[in-house]
Amino acid sequence: MRLPELDWQPVSRVQFIGWSVFYALLLFYLATNFTELTLLDNVHLPIHETGQLLFGWFGDTLGLWGGTLLQLIVPALLAVSFAVRRDLLGTTFCSLAFFHSLTGVATYMIDALRLELPLVTVGAIADESMHDWVNIFTRLGVLPHAIQIGNTVRVLAWIGMLGAVAWFSWRYFLQTQSHAATT
After folding, report:
1. How many CB atoms lie within 10 A of CB 172?
2. Which backbone phi and psi does 60 adopt, to 5 degrees?
3. Residues 61-111: pLDDT tens digits?
4. Quick one: which of 14, 63, 116, 119 has the most CB atoms within 10 Å?
5. 97 exposure class (CB count in 10 Å sphere: 0-12, 13-18, 19+)
6. Across 139-165, average pLDDT
């Protein structure tokens, strides 16, 4: 069975080079500063907090998971939206943002045992806020394995980020091969 091929909007050489340099610098920065918060993390945080408020209307469990869910759903839906429009640049960027968001989730998971990250909460007194992943892992009975789970999620996220950039390069390569074949 063969999946249908999308006819992606063409990407110019200048766009490809510019975005490739941007992704290389971004990935280098993220690799050398993976324990620090980045500008993208500041984008994910309000989405995370909104998710807890939004999903909280559907009960305690969904409210607890809601921050992580919305934090991942937003870039995923944006990537799908760009893919439907056959926009390679937007799809790649939002895919990378999805996997970068997953690195933040991994950091938060790992922190469930370390409890070093400053907690941000909306609508609760700071002393009443509880670490989401302490609560989630405790309910699942896997809290002692938080670091291993978080590190596994971090590896998967990095595979995804590298894969998104590799896919972008591959699509550009196919575009140039297709263009060369028709001329």
Report:
1. 22
2. -60, -45
3. 888 898 999 999 999 999 999 999 999 999 999 999 999 999 999 999 999
4. 63
5. buried
6. 97
The CA-CA-CA angle for residues 139, 133, 23, to 5°, reads 140
Place of tokens 């609508």: 123
User: What span, in angstroms and rounded, lies between the C-alpha atoms of 54 and 1?
Assistant: 40
Tokens of residue 169, six digits: 């390069």
The Cα–Cα gap between 95 and 78 comes to 8
Q: How far is CA 114 from the centre of its chain?
A: 22
* Token representation of residue 125: 């007194």
> Which residue bears the tokens 């968001």?
101
Cβ neighbors of 104 (< 8 A, separation 6 or more) are 41, 44, 71
What is the C-alpha to C-alpha distance for residues 91 and 84, in angstroms, rounded to an integer? 9
Q: Mind listing the pLDDT tens digit for each residue in 30-69?
A: 999 877 777 777 788 888 888 888 888 898 888 889 899 9
